[in-house]
Amino acid sequence: YILFLFIGSAFGEIKNVSVVNADKKDFETSLKVLQVGDVFFVSARDLANGLHWNYVPNKKMRKAVLYPEGREVKIAGENPFMMIGEDVYQLPVEVKYIGGELFIPLNYFVKCINNALLGDYIFDKRGRKIEINMSNYTVGGISVEDKKNGTYIKIGASKKFDNISNWVLSDGWFYCQIHGGRIDTNAQSNY
Predict the structure, then answer these.
(1) Please, which residues bridge with residue 150 across strands?
(2) Which of 27-49 are b and which e, b meaning 16 or more Cβ less than 10 Å from the residue's Cβ?
(3) What's the helix, strand, coil split of the chain in %, to 5?
(4) Is the pTM of this model over 0.85?
(5) Residues 6+ apart with CB under 8 A from 41
(6) Quick check: helix, strand or coil at residue 10?
(7) Who's near 86: CB < 8 A, 6+ residues apart?
(8) Which residue positions in the chain have pLDDT lower than 70?
(9) Which end of the chain is flanked by fewer CB atoms within 10 Å, N or C?
(10) 118-to-13, 55, 163, 179 alpha-carbon distances in Å
């Protein structure tokens, strides 16, 4: 924290960003960020703690892994590339490594995770707020019933999908792809 204050006074302005989760009315936290121009940098450790994500740093390699929504997000100091699962994203501004800590360019990081993760993550830099909404899933719930003439499978959806494909492999497994659907992979259900 002292290091962050020193860095802030030398290179930018320290501000607070509030984090609000629309699904959990009692969840609100605040993160200290360093604003440099129109880019907001946040400590990767503070971001993970504030959002209740697991965080595994590797100071020797100047890297870290964050675990949001059961996914793996890899970042590295002095590097604009990050990985979410197996996908590579390039941030317009590199992750900073200062005093043994990684500082993420929050504006751009939120855009990447919003595209890659299930929830909606929105960063309002004017209002200095991150809004999280996890209830935008369009596919949820499945029921399977044995019938006299086969099996009846019902998949719940909050909208109509035009592009659905399904098939059965020779081993008997049934597969269904709902193109454009979003599902809560952390839900306690068998998908």
Answers:
(1) 147
(2) eeeebbbbbbeebbbbbbebbbe
(3) 15, 50, 35
(4) no
(5) 12, 33, 34, 35, 96, 103, 104, 105, 106
(6) helix
(7) none
(8) 1-11, 23, 25, 118, 135-137, 140-141, 158-159, 184-191
(9) N
(10) 32, 19, 19, 14
What's the CA gap between 95 and 116, in Å, rounded? 18
Chain centre distance of CA 41: 17
Tell me what pLDDT residue 9 has.
47
CA distances from 15 to 12, 30, 46, 87, 128 (A): 10, 10, 14, 31, 8
Strand 73-76 and strand 79-84: pairing?
antiparallel
Structure tokens at 160: 């109509």
Compute the distance between CA of residue 29 and CA of residue 46 in angstroms, rounded to an integer.
11
What pLDDT sits at residue 76? Answer: 98
R_g (Cα) of the chain, nearest Å = 20
Q: What is the arrangement of strands in the sheet containing 39-43, beginning at the earlier edge strand?
A: 54-58, 63-67, 73-76, 79-84, 87-98, 101-105, 39-43, 28-36, 13-21, 129-133, 120-124
User: Are the C-beta atoms of 154 and 146 separated by less than 8 Å?
Assistant: no
Amino acid (one-letter) located at 51: L
- The residue to which tokens 């259900």 are assigned: 189
H or E stretch including 92? strand 87-98
For residue 83, the tally of other CB atoms under 10 A from its CB is 15
User: Which tokens is 65 given?
Assistant: 């892994």
